[in-house]
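Weekly puzzle thread! Below is a chain. First person to post its structure in token form gets bragging rights.
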Amino acid sequence: MQFDRRAFLQGMAGLAVAAPRAFAFANDRKRTRLILLGTRGGPRVVDDNRSTSSVLLVINDVPYVVDCGYGTSRRLLAAGIPLNTVRYIFITHHHSDHNLEYGPLFYNGWVSGAPSRVDSYGPPGLVKMTAAFFESMKIDIETRIVDEGRPDPRTRLFPHDIDKPGLVLQNEDVKVTAAQVPHPMIEHAYAYRFDAADRSIVISGDTAYSEALADLAKDADVLVHEIMYLPAIDALLKRVPNAARLREHLLVSHTAPEDVGKVAARANVKTLVLYHFVPADAGAVTDEQWMHGVRKHFRGRIILGRDLMEV
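Winning reply:
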């Protein structure tokens, strides 16, 4: 066969153009994605615009869910994530706006396609909570195993209690580390840091100002931090019967904008994402009001989080 030099060079030129595109596609497919599923503070859970707390990370195509507030399953589907592909679940603390859909999220994945294995991590009580959920669904589970030929879900979910800060999980794709944060009256409340090959992302969970959180987030690419706007709280409390006690709880358990800015500045993060807006009924608070106090101390990029936003 005669060698056609011109055809060969043209073919190589085509490969030179196509190869970077193929490489870019592969990198895009496996890049670490951060999607806010629920950005509303609790405890009220019903809202047309925001679901309660949940954050999704997709690391090398594997979904990691941090917190399971009401609406997490629907938000995952809206984000294009099949429920039976969730591999890891992390709970920051045991408040209902963070764990109410923990059992149902796994269960929805089971009835939609039987996940092979899910590992969950959270404060002490998660193991008991998992067992209690399965006990509450025992009739349905055993009926579906027989009638529908499904595998036993109780052999697919593996809960792990976390009773101290430090390393939580490490695999070939990510290292997950926890810091204990202040959130009275909850003793065990954790923030999580995810160090993947391309990005480092920290999720605060619920917390008052915390130097431990700032240390955990040191030089991170993204810090997703809760925020509380006190004037809106004072307006809200005029309408509730337990105002004095509720105000006391909110002030010691959440972070004012100025303190959020201090944490982000101390940590030297590249991007600060605000979520878990307190109070939950803060629709009258403008974007500028949320961010004004933060900007007093943090000069980096600030994003006001919204449900299904990808950062």
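Puzzle host: Confirmed. Bonus trivia for everyone else. The mean pLDDT is 89.
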